[in-house]
């Protein structure tokens, strides 16, 4: 009899959970999936001095580094979305992230001079990919893949599990969710969307999905407060400051979770209006925006999600917009 099996871990700075409907002896397969995440974490982490990304950062402005195929694939995707979003998503945001230290023990508001220096170093155009070798053009430039690595890892685990014959599973990397197939009862998976203004675990609504990724970027994910003001972890590459445009969160539905991850960050940076224009030319992607306007909370949905989204509270206004049909 198939049953729900789950393995948990803490990797890539977040809780990772892989669950599947399968027989007992397949638990090993899920553990192997978790080991894959650990493998990618070791390659991609900006916090580990021995990761490939740290090596690349250390060689910035100096020399090319030959990377593992996984790291190459990640950087290619990151560069693709940086170009597509005109740098709203910029994987060279490292120097800015390093100054703020959000999520670390002692976050601080950086002084202006170092922050100006840091934003000058942020430019995806200086990420040079040449076959399997990669280099950052200038000294003191640094990659930070925090805005795409979890999505990439979720895709990687999903294709591994599928290759092992798993037909129904849920992969969750701290809110980057990929659903394989449907639930064992044949119904779609229900994925809760966090209410950005409520304690973690409180859903503002849910989306029903099958074979799809759901990724959210929000102000509640990592932040610190100083003098009553909240500073969160999604930065404008132009100002080096946390983006303030009224958005509380952006959720992206897409087939690829790496795409969804990069886009959730990018569309958050763009702001709702530009983000909707962007979605009108991007097929296969749907979005949910949650924003604060005065004292009202507004949820804006891709029209296609109308039937898939179920609200769980009544304290909001719901709007829809037309997206691009694939
Ligand atoms: P989460 O890590 O909560 O899933 P995101 O996917 O939005 O959220 O990623 C935020 C992370 O991405 C930050 O912690 C930082 O590492 C990185 N980041 C911040 N701003 C940008 C940006 N403009 N472009 C690319 N990456 C960014
Ligand atoms: Mg992201």
Question: What distinguishing features does this structure have?
Answer:
326 residues, alpha+beta, three-stranded antiparallel sheet, 8 helices, 30% strand
Written overview of the protein:
- With 326 residues, the protein is an alpha+beta fold.
- Helices cover 29% and strands 30% of the residues.
- The chain has 8 helices and 17 strands.
- Strands 1-2-6-7-10-13-14-15-17 form a 9-stranded mixed beta sheet. Strands 3-5-4 form a 3-stranded antiparallel beta sheet, with helices on one face. A 3-stranded antiparallel beta sheet has the order 8-9-16, with no helix packed on it.
- It is globular.
- The chain starts with a strand and ends in a 5-residue tail after the last strand.
- 46% of the residues are buried.
- The mean pLDDT is 95.
- Bound molecules: adenosine-5'-diphosphate and magnesium ion.
- Magnesium ion binds next to helix 7.
* Helix coverage percent: 25-40%
Relative strand content: 25-35%
Main sheet summary: 9 strands, mixed
What integer value in Å does the Rg equal? 19 Å
Number of strands: 17
Class of secondary structure makeup: alpha+beta
Q: How are the strands of the largest sheet arranged?
A: 1-2-6-7-10-13-14-15-17
For the terminal residues, how far apart are their CA atoms? 38 Å
Shape label: globular
Hetero ligands: adenosine-5'-diphosphate, magnesium ion
Mean pLDDT: 95
Low-confidence stretches: none
* Structure annotation, total helices: 8
Question: What series of H and E elements makes up the topology?
Answer: EEHHEHHHEEHEEEEEEEEHHEEEE
């Amino acid at each position: 009899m198939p049953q729900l099996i789950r393995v948990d871990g803490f990797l890539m700075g977040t809780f990772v959970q892989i669950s599947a409907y399968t027989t007992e002896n397949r638990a090993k397969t899920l553990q192997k999936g978790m080991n894959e995440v650990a493998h990618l974490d070791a390659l991609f982490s900006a916090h580990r001095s021995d990761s490939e990304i740290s090596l690349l950062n250390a060689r910035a402005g100096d020399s090319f580094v030959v990377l593992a195929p996984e790291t190459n694939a990640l950087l290619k995707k990151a560069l693709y979305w940086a170009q597509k979003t005109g740098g709203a998503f910029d994987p060279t945001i490292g120097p800015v992230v390093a100054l703020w230290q959000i999520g670390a023990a002692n976050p601080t508001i950086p002084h202006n001079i170092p922050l100006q220096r840091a934003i000058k170093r942020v430019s995806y155009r200086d990420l040079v990919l040449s076959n399997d070798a990669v280099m950052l053009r200038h000294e003191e430039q640094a990659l930070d893949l925090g805005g795409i690595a979890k999505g990439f890892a979720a895709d990687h685990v999903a294709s591994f599990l599928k290759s092992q014959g798993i037909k129904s599973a849920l992969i969750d990397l701290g809110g980057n969710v990929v659903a394989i197939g449907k639930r064992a009862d044949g119904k779609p998976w229900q994925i809760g969307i966090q209410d950005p203004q409520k304690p973690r675990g409180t859903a503002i609504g849910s989306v029903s999905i099958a074979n799809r990724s759901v990724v959210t970027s929000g102000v509640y994910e990592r932040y610190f407060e100083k003098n009553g003001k909240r500073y969160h972890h999604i930065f404008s590459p132009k100002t080096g400051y946390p983006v303030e445009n009224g958005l509380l969160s952006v959720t992206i539905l897409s087939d690829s979770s790496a795409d969804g991850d990069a886009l959730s960050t990018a569309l958050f940076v763009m702001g709702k209006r530009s983000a909707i224009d962007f979605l009108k030319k991007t097929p296969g992607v749907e979005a949910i925006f949650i924003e604060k306007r005065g004292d009202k909370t507004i949820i804006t949905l891709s029209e296609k999600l109308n039937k898939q989204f179920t609200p769980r509270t009544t304290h909001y206004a719901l709007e829809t917009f037309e997206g691009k049909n694939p």
